[in-house]
Amino acid sequence: MPQIALFNHKGGVSKTTTVFNLGWMLAEKGHRVLIVDSDPQCNLTGMVLGFKGADELESFYEQQGGNTIRSGLAPAFEAQPKSIEAVQAVEVPGRPGLFLLPGDLRLSEYEVTLGIAQELSAAIQALQNLPGSLSFLISKTAQSVSADFVLVDMSPGLGPINQNLVMTSDYLILPTSPDVFSVMAIDSLSRVLPRWKSWANQASSMPVLRDAAYPFPEPKLRVLGTIVQKFRPRKGLPASAFQRWIDESANAVRQRLTPSLQGAGLLLPSEAYVENGVDDSLNLALIADFNSLISRSQEFLTPVFALTAEQLLAVGTVLENAEESRDAFHQQFSALADKVVSMTTTEVE
After folding, report:
1. Using an 8 Å Cβ cutoff, are 27 and 12 in contact?
2. What's the confidence (pLDDT) of residue 184?
3. Which residues on neighbouring strands pair with residue 182, listed in sequence order?
4. Contact indicator for 291, 304 with CB cutoff of 8 Å
5. Cβ neighbours of residue 18 under 8 Å, at least 6 residues apart?
6. Is 218 in contact with 204 (CB distance < 8 Å)?
7. Distance CA 224, CA 342 (A)
8. Which of 42, 119, 267, 325 has the greatest CB tally within 10 Å of its CB?
9. pLDDT tops 70 at residue 192
């Protein structure tokens, strides 16, 4: 049951959309999938369940109450006299085998406490259960729905929750967009990820965390690669203005990110990339801007590639073009899902 984090501390790179579409595609291929909304903005929860504002989210919390990521963590963070149990995951409408661990606007309230625990748990024993609690909750919930894969949607930022979720995952995918800020983010991650790995190695070796009620797991993280999204195509290829930044991002990966990850032991064996058609830029997929299809996807609570002709709300040539784009996205996400399955079943050295 591999846990795959989708993370980039740059915002606006379609992490949430990718988690939803990739999770749906994996389920379409017969896998049972848990998608986890760890972003306090709850965009994944809203996308899955069709919430259009804070009022609808509030109503959900009133009904769902004890079944969100925050409520699942409450026994550890609020010293309640009970153990963490699996959250009752929400079955995603229209896609059997796909389940949601809902987000919670109040999860950010735990950020400071977790940060203190991750720095001082060796000195303050009362904090020892917190660093391993997120991994424990997600694993318990995944087991409750017999998940084959777990995909974690994360907020942008380099805070303690993201640090914890990345380093307790088995694999990492880095969504990016073709712009200067994504290149800067790649450079930043080449420094951040090895530092986080060093912290996780230290945390997992500490007896106080290893022997906690919710043990901090030994880090096994491997980076699968990047996904480049949100570019406008021209004649089936990225327009030249976008291609420039796609090339810049690839160079940043080759020259700075890959050597850094290699040195920190954060890559798969080289043959795992070669066998899956992933070159030294570590790019898993190029996915163009969804444009008008994204609004249809959000309206009908279904991935872009699963929209029916009726849901596309078009006729004639417009419908033909929309169906062509939809089918291209289906092919792209199908290929991406196949790579993810293949690469996560690779024996890690």
Report:
1. no
2. 94
3. none
4. no
5. 6, 173, 175, 227, 229, 287
6. yes
7. 11
8. 42
9. yes
Q: What is the pLDDT of residue 219?
A: 96
Token pair of 69 as six digits: 């990521």
Do residues 343 and 268 lie in contact, with contact meaning Cβ atoms separated by under 8 Å? yes
Name which of 57-66, 84-93, 154-163, 281-290 the model is least confident about.
Answer: 57-66
93 three-class SS: coil
Q: Which two tokens stand for residue 1?
A: 């049951």
Helix (H) or strand (E) segment spanning residue 263: helix 258-263
* Distance of alpha carbon 7 from alpha carbon 153, whole angstroms: 7
Reported pTM? 0.93
The alpha carbon dihedral of 212, 123, 131, 61 has a sign of positive
Residue 159 clears pLDDT 50, i.e. is over it: yes
161 burial (CB, 10 Å; 0-12 / 13-18 / 19+) is buried
CA atoms within 13 A of residue 205's CA, in its CB half-sphere: 6
At CA 137, angle to CA 219 and CA 264, rounded to 5?
15
Distance (Å, whole) CA 136 – CA 134: 5
CB 208 within 8 A of CB 128: yes
The bridge status of strand 90-91 relative to strand 98-101 is antiparallel
| Order of strands, sheet of 33-37, starting from the edge strand that comes earlier in the sequence | 90-91, 98-101, 33-37, 149-153, 3-6, 171-176, 222-229, 283-287
Q: What is the 8-class DSSP label of residue 253?
A: I
Mean pLDDT of 246-268: 95
Instruction: Quickly name the fold that domain 3-291 has.
Output: Rossmann fold (3.40.50)
CB 135 within 8 A of CB 203: no
Average pLDDT of the chain is 90
DSSP 267-316: B--HHHHHHTT--TT-EEEEE---TTHHHHHHHHTS-GGG--HHHHT--H
pLDDT (average), residues 121-135: 82
Q: Band of the pLDDT at 348, cuts 50, 70, 90?
A: very low
